[in-house]
Automatic annotation (TrEMBL):
Source domain of life: Bacteria
Phylogenetic placement of the source organism: Bacteria, Pseudomonadati, Pseudomonadota, Gammaproteobacteria, Cellvibrionales
Protein name per UniProt: Lipopolysaccharide heptosyltransferase 1
Catalytic activity: an alpha-Kdo-(2->4)-alpha-Kdo-(2->6)-lipid A + ADP-L-glycero-beta-D-manno-heptose = an L-alpha-D-Hep-(1->5)-[alpha-Kdo-(2->4)]-alpha-Kdo-(2->6)-lipid A + ADP + H(+)
Pathway(s) where this gene product acts: Bacterial outer membrane biogenesis; LPS core biosynthesis
Membrane topology: Peripheral membrane protein
Subcellular localization(s) per the UniProt record: Cell inner membrane
Similarity section: Belongs to the glycosyltransferase 9 family.
Major location category of this protein: membrane
Length: 367
């Protein structure tokens, strides 16, 4: 007799038992952003530890497919170009989406789990050839409408960090309680990299002008580090970031930067090699944390409470006491002229000496 997956999944004990003894094909939908991809890794580690037989395919934005493939629990990465299709709406994009959907539906999945909780991720979840879709309930999803796309929805406390929310969602969907231990599961992908106990990496770029740190403070930080005998390498990813790196090196000639823009994997290797990292609110700071390198991330206009770095080897550094306008979550500082590229006070008042002291503390604890 053919089993009914929906009936089984609605009987948690039987469902959990079947997961332990037989392979189950799961499709994960979590398409972006870079930080969100890293935040999903511990949930994958939990699931694979609890149910070693599951096979997990992952739908992710094409630009992040390289990252998703790092996790050993992932059987196959399914790239999607949803951002491009939505930006360039038209016949060509619609045809490309239909071809992608048709290809996806060639595979059957026992269930889908939407770990993003957005309208777009709910719609993509519905595209899969599966009778069961797990996701957040209407009070827990980032966009309430998303819960209408799920056959099974779960209440997950929205006050938790994004990493813990995702772990709780997986636990409720697949019948287990996550342990306190946090395992990103990707460090073993870089065992070939030799650690350099005297090397530091600075991550100077981020997507918002308001999240940038003063160039003068980066210069001061580089001078402190070099005076203490450390080598400093500055990671950049755009022409504007390359110019900031040039200005830092102009004042600190012993600091270095890559000659060309690097791949995500190459940057990951740099972060593993380093004994410490200082960065901003950006995906590469999250990557450094996921790789368990002592990392300090500087926050100003945004709050790290729910989406900051997590783990004992990381620290989210903010101005203390905070300004009354923090966090504003704005790309334009209300106290600066329109289109100004100046550093807002919430970032400029974080000083190099403070960042250095915080990094030293984390490096000592880690060693």
């Amino acid at each position: 007799m053919k089993r009914n997956p929906t009936r089984i999944i609605n009987r948690p004990r039987l469902y959990s038992f079947l997961l332990k003894i037989s392979p189950m094909r799961i499709l994960l939908v979590k398409m972006s952003s870079m930080g969100d991809i890293f935040h999903t890794f511990p949930a994958l580690s939990d699931l694979k530890q609890q149910h070693p037989h599951v096979e997990i395919d992952w739908v992710v934005e094409e630009g992040f497919s390289e990252i998703a493939a790092w996790h050993p629990a992932v059987t196959r990465v399914i790239p999607i170009q949803l951002r491009r299709w939505m930006k360039h709406k038209g016949y060509a994009s619609w045809q490309a989406f239909k071809a992608w959907k048709k290809n996806l539906q060639l595979e059957h999945y026992d269930c889908v789990i939407d770990a993003q909780g957005l309208l777009k991720s709910g719609l993509i979840s519905r595209c899969a050839n599966s009778p069961v879709i797990h996701g957040y309930d209407k009070h827990s999803a980032r966009e309430t409408i998303a819960h209408w796309f799920y056959t099974n929805s779960y209440a997950v406390d929205t006050r938790q960090h994004a990493v813990e929310r995702t772990r709780q969602l997986f636990g409720k969907a697949f019948g287990y309680q996550p342990t306190p231990l946090l395992n990103f599961g990707i460090k073993q992908q870089f065992t070939h990299v030799v650690k350099n106990s005297r090397k530091l990496v600075f991550i100077i770029g981020t997507s918002w002008v308001t999240k940038l740190w003063s160039t003068s403070e980066w210069q001061a930080l580089a001078q402190i580090a070099i005076a203490q005998g450390y080598a400093v390498e500055i990671i950049w990813g755009s022409p504007s970031e390359q110019e900031i790196a040039r200005k830092i090196i102009e004042q600190c000639p012993l600091a270095t930067r890559p000659g060309e823009r690097m791949s995500i994997t190459a940057i990951a290797e740099k972060l593993v090699e380093a004994t410490g990292v200082i960065g901003l609110d950006t995906g590469f700071s999250h990557l450094a944390g996921a790789l368990e390198t002592p990392t300090i991330a500087l926050y100003g206009p945004t709050s790290p409470t729910k989406v900051g770095l997590i783990g004992p080897h990381t620290l989210n550094l903010q101005l203390s006491p905070p300004l009354d306008c923090m966090p504003c979550h704005k790309r334009q500082c209300q106290w600066l002229p329109e289109k100004s590229t100046d550093t807002p006070a919430c970032m400029s008042q974080i000083k190099a000496a403070q960042a250095w002291a915080s990094l030293q503390e984390k490096m000592r604890a880690h060693s």
